[in-house]
Write a structure and sequence with these properties.
mainly alpha; 21 helices; single chain
């Protein structure tokens, strides 16, 4: 009974935290506390409210600038809308400026003797060390936006230089964490969870790049150790009361349930992902993102009907950000294709064609393939299929100057369809067995 009362008090406390008015003064502790509230709002599907809480202080507080920039960044990446990308770039640029103003200013002497005399990190203020961390996080967002904004080589080089600066900032943050005397500093857990997330995420990201690119990056000073990255993220996820602890868990869940299957490495730890997911679902039972991960885990385990239920729950949980719906539509498309329900799979591909800008070529190819698998096609349906396949090459796009592999596959198959007299052999089944998005997705397939 006492435990139940305590639980109810905790819920009331969290509700109260989420309903407090936006403060009129902001120090570092207040900014971190306010950003924690924003994160909880976001994970509870209250995206617009989270955004509106960060905006008033985004020009002064490093954490509000980072939070507002991150929300704009996610909107841009998930919509691929040119206007959203431009708005996100402007917001993140301003966030970089806010963070940079509060970083430790290096004197001429300290710059000249940096390689000889180690900096005394105990002389850094709390604001300065957190500014360094927020600066690194803003830089990585700015770099990624540069890659998707333009296709040319200059943008690629600019993005690479920003990633290099981000890499060095994270290395400095790691030195601060290990060499600074903390003496029970209350903000240490928030800083440490951020360093674990940054170092872990960076190592994991670099390690997943193609070998040729990885060797080039190592030549110019980058390094990527996948095992180090995963261990840092796992350690960071244990800091449940740290600001970035839950974010470490989200990165790990995304890696183990999505990234490993997209890349075809098949080394995802589904048991770990499920273990990380349980407390998240307990805290945010209607969180669209966590319901999506729950669906992915069931899909990978081969429990297709359970996966469909979870994806449907994720879609129904919110309407503010329909971009999350598109993640679920993609998985629902595959789930129904696993069941041989080509018409339902086609309907989700059609939804994606109509609503999502991520990969029009892929969505159109999948729609055509599923229609081709259906029985009793009318002459009008066949004409529509021919039209869809003919349009696939026109929808191809490039990111960071490179074609997307899954789109290359779609264009190749669409051209083969036309060259073979409007025929393809079991096109939907070929897509299901290819590890391009969710393929090799089910452990028993």
């Amino acid at each position: 009974m006492a435990q139940k009362e305590a639980s109810e008090e905790d819920e009331l406390f969290e509700d109260a935290r989420e309903c407090v008015p936006i403060p009129t003064e902001m120090d570092l502790a207040g900014a971190i506390e306010e950003t924690t509230v924003v994160l909880k709002l976001f994970l509870n599907n209250r995206f617009n409210e989270a955004k509106s809480r960060t905006q008033p202080w985004a020009g002064e507080s490093m954490y509000h600038a980072l939070g507002y920039g991150t929300i704009m960044f996610l909107q841009a990446v998930m919509t691929f809308d040119a206007t959203a990308i431009e708005a996100a770039i402007d917001t993140v640029k301003r966030a970089v400026i806010v963070c940079n103003k509060q970083r430790k200013k290096a004197s001429m002497m300290s710059t000249l003797t940096r390689g000889v005399i180690k900096p005394d990190y105990d002389t850094y203020t709390d604001d300065e060390i957190h500014a360094e961390l927020c600066y690194a996080e803003c830089l990585i967002q700015r770099a990624l936006l540069t890659f998707i904004q333009d296709e040319n080589l200059i943008s690629f080089v600019k993005g690479a230089l920003k990633i290099r600066a981000c890499y060095h900032s994270y290395k400095d943050c790691a030195k601060i964490l290990h060499q600074r005397t903390w003496n029970g500093n209350k903000q240490q857990i928030h800083f440490e969870s951020g360093v674990r997330m940054g170092i872990g995420g960076f190592n994991l990201l670099i390690s997943l790049l193609p070998t040729r690119i990885l060797r080039l990056l190592e030549f110019v000073g980058f390094s990527g150790n996948k095992h180090l990255g995963l261990s840092e993220l796992e350690l960071g996820s244990t800091y449940s009361h740290g600001l970035r602890g839950p974010l470490c868990s989200i990165i790990l869940m995304a890696y183990h349930t999505l990234v490993t299957y997209v890349l075809g490495t098949a080394d995802g730890d589904i048991d770990l992902a499920e273990k990380l997911l349980q407390p998240c679902l307990k805290d945010f039972p209607n969180g669209a993102l966590f319901l999506f991960f729950a669906g992915r885990i069931q899909e990978i385990r081969g429990n297709i009907d359970e996966a469909i239920v979870r994806f449907d729950e994720s879609v129904e949980s919110q309407e503010e950000w329909r971009q999350f719906h598109h993640l679920c539509y993609w998985e629902l498309m595959w789930c129904h294709s696993f069941k041989g329900d080509w018409l339902m799979a086609m309907k989700y591909a059609e939804k994606l064609c109509r609503e999502s800008k991520w990969s029009k070529a892929t969505y159109m190819y999948q729609k055509a393939s599923f229609l081709l698998m259906c029985d009793d096609k009318s002459p009008d349906t066949i004409c529509h299929i021919n039209y869809l396949f003919s349009e696939v090459p026109n929808m191809k796009q490039r990111i960071a100057g490179k074609s997307i592999p899954i789109e290359k596959f779609a264009v190749k198959k669409a051209k083969r369809y036309q060259a073979s007299g409007n025929r393809l052999t079991l096109p939907a089944l070929v897509s299901v067995t290819r590890p391009v998005g969710t393929g090799s997705h089910c452990q028993h397939w």
